[in-house]
C-alpha cells in the first residue's frame, strides 16, 4: 500500500493545541478585573471537572492554566485619584475632532467594543500620565489627543 493512503490514526492529523499566550509585562488589574479573573478560574475549573470527554477536559484545563496564571500574577493597581490618566480611570478626550470616552483597565479586562482598553494599548500609553486639559501625541501627530476629563472607576 502506498504511504500516501496509509493513515496511522486521527491524532496525527489534528491541529496541535498550544498554551494560551500570556501578555508580556506586568499583570496590572483593577479590582473589577481581579474579580473577573477569579470568576474565569471558577468557570474553567467547573468545566474541567464536568467534561464528558477527554478533548473537552483538556481544553478546559488549558484555559484553566491560563486563568490560574493570570490570577497568581495579578497586581491590583493603586487606586486612581482621577488627577491624571492611569489604569483604573475613565477618560473623556477628543481625537481627530471626535469626542470619546474610554476606561483604562488590565489586559484581561479589556473590551474595546465596550470602551475598555488595556493599559498597554497604544491609545492608553499615549494618554497615561496626562492631566485634564493636556494635549498628547498619538499616531505620529503632535497634540493629536486633548484630555477633557478624568475620573476614577
Write structural notes for this entry.
This protein folds into two domains: 26-76, no CATH class; 89-152, Transcription elongation factor, GreA/GreB, C-terminal domain (Chitinase A, domain 3). 30% of the residues lie in helices and 25% in strands. It has three helices and seven strands. The protein has helices spanning 31-50, 54-73, 122-127; strands at residues 28-29, 75-76, 89-95, 98-105, 116-118, 135-138, 141-152. Helix 1 packs antiparallel against helix 2. It is elongated. The N and C termini lie far apart (67 Å). The model has no long low-confidence stretch (mean pLDDT 91). Keywords: Elongation factor, Protein biosynthesis.
Amino acid at each position: 500500500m502506498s504511504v500516501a493512503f496509509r493513515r496511522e490514526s486521527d491524532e496525527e492529523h489534528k491541529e496541535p493545541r498550544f498554551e494560551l499566550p500570556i501578555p508580556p509585562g506586568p499583570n496590572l488589574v483593577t479590582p473589577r478585573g481581579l474579580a473577573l479573573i477569579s470568576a474565569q478560574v471558577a468557570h474553567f475549573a467547573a468545566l474541567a471537572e464536568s467534561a464528558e470527554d477527554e478533548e473537552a477536559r483538556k481544553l478546559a484545563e488549558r484555559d484553566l492554566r491560563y486563568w490560574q496564571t493570570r490570577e497568581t500574577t495579578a497586581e491590583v493597581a493603586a487606586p486612581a485619584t482621577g488627577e491624571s490618566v492611569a489604569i483604573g480611570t475613565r477618560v473623556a478626550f477628543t481625537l481627530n475632532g471626535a469626542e470619546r470616552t474610554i476606561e483604562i483597565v488590565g489586559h484581561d479586562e479589556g473590551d474595546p467594543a465596550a470602551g475598555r482598553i488595556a493599559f498597554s494599548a497604544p491609545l492608553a500609553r499615549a494618554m497615561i500620565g496626562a492631566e485634564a486639559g493636556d494635549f498628547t501625541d498619538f499616531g505620529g501627530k503632535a497634540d493629536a489627543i486633548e484630555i477633557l476629563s478624568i475620573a476614577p472607576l
